[in-house]
Design goal:
Blueprint lengths: L4 E5 L2 E5 L8 E4 L3 H12 L8 E4 L3 H9 L4 E3 L2 H5 L4 E4 L3 H11 L8 E4 L6 H8 L4 E5 L9 E8 L3 H12 L2 E5 L5 H28 L4 H22 L3 H6 L7 H11 L2 H19 L5
Parallel strand pairs: 3-4, 3-6, 4-5, 6-7, 7-8, 9-10
Antiparallel strand pairs: 1-2, 8-9
Length: 289
Amino acid sequence: MPDLVYFYTPFRLFLTLSVMKINNITIVGGGNLGSAIAKGILAIKEISADKLIICEKRKLRIDYLKEAGFKNVDSNIKNSVKDADLVIVSVKPQQFTKVLEEIKPNLKKNQILISTVTGASLAQIASIIKVHPTVRIMPNTAIEIKESMTCMCFNNTSGEQEELIFNLFNKMGKSIVLQEDLLDAVTVLGACGIAFALRFIRAATQGGIEIGFGSELSQLIVSQTVKGAAHLLLENNSHPESEIDKVTTPQGITISGLNEMEHQGFSSSVIKGLITSFNKLSAIETNNI
C-alpha cells in the first residue's frame, strides 16, 4: 500500500493515497493568458511539447503561436480535448458558454476541466457540463516564468485530483486554495495586480530618467529593486512597514520622498484603483455566462 501523502494550504488539508500522472494537456484559448500557461507548463517540464495542445480558432493567433514554437496548435475542439487529462479553458467571458457547449459532448469522466474565466462560477459551469471534476483557477501572466500567484477552488473533485492540480500550478509560482467567493477579489489583486505593479515600475523608471539615468538603466534598477522588495517580504515573512523602517532615517531622503508620495495620494489611489476594478467586475460578471 502506498504511503499516505499529506499537504496543506492555509485553507485546505488534502489526504491522498496515490499520485495521479498528467500525460496530455489541452489549453482551449491561445490568448495572452492561455499561451502564458502553456509556456509555464513547458518550463517546468511537466509534459513534453508534443503532449501539449493549444486549441485556437483565430488564424492570426494560430500563426503567432506556431511562430512562438508551440508544436501542436489545433482549431478543432473535439480533436484537441479527446486525449487530454487536463482541459484548461482560457477564453474571454463572453465566449465561455459557447466553448463549454462545444466541449461538453467530448468530455470524459476522467478528464479534469480547469477554467481561468473571470466571473464564471463553479455552479454556472456545472449548469452546462453537469457533474464533472472542475477547477477554477486565477493565475497571472507571470506564470510563463514560473512566478505566478495562482488561487483555486474545486468542485466534484477527489483529493487526489485536487493534489494533482495544486502541485502542478505550485511549480509555476505559488498556489493557494480559497473559497470561491474570494476569486473575484483575487482577480483584481493577483491578476490585475500585475498591471498595477508594472505601472509603478514604469512611473519609477520615468522618474529615474528625470534624475539622470538612461531609460534602460533606469528600468533595470527599478525592476531589480522591486524584485528585491518583494523577496524581502516573502523570505522574511515580514510586514512592509518593518522593511520600510529599515531604510528611513530621521530627516532623511527616503522619508521625505515617501511623505510627498502620500501627500499626492499614492496609497489612496492604489486602494481606489483596486476597488474600482473590483466593482466593475462585480457589475459585469452576471453577464459572463
